[in-house]
Amino acid sequence: MFNTREVDSDPCKRPSIFFLDSLASTSATDDLVITSVYKSNGFDNCVGKKDLTKKLEEIRVHSHKLDLNVRQMQARRRQCCNVLPSSPGDKVLNIAIRECGEAELAYMLP
């Protein structure tokens, strides 16, 4: 499904778009951590804009390598995330992807 609405000529009224900038992996005690970095499209000079995404310059997503064992490949698998403390000035958003806990619910809007 595509959203085919018209693009506003004012860049401050357009949605924020982040593009994949880099992908890296690091090993830490038998665990491979993958970090993907997404950079903003550069429209950050919107005066008086209250949308927090307009201030963001970078989003970093940290996740563990998917281990293709039986549990992770079963139906109803899901992942949750934690929003980590951000940098001063709210220019960078760090997100950690993790397996959901037993009591956590993952809900998708219809």
Q: Tell me, rounded to a whole number, the average pLDDT.
A: 76
Shape: globular
What strand order characterises the main sheet? 1-2-3-5-4
Biggest sheet descriptor = 5 strands, mixed
Secondary structure class reads mainly beta
How large, in whole angstroms, is the Cα Rg? 17 Å
How many beta-strand elements?
5
Q: State the end-to-end CA separation.
A: 14 Å
Q: Report helical residue fraction.
A: under 10%
The residue ranges in which pLDDT falls below 50 over 5 or more consecutive positions are: none
Give the SSE string. EEEHEE
Strand percent estimate:
35-45%
Number of helices: 1
Characterize the structure shown:
With 110 residues, the chain is mainly β. Helices cover 4% and strands 36% of the residues. The protein contains one helix and five strands, in the order E-E-E-H-E-E. Strands 1-2-3-5-4 form a five-stranded mixed sheet, with no helix packed on it. A hairpin with a 7-residue loop joins strand 4 and strand 5. The longest helix is centred in the middle third of the chain and has 4 residues.
Offer a few descriptive terms:
mainly beta, 110 residues, 5-stranded mixed β-sheet
In terms of topology, how is this protein built?
Blueprint (H helix, E strand, L loop, with lengths): L17 E10 L4 E9 L17 E7 L5 H4 L5 E6 L7 E8 L11
Parallel strand pairs: 3-5
Antiparallel strand pairs: 1-2, 2-3, 4-5
InterPro entries: DUF604
Pfam families: DUF604
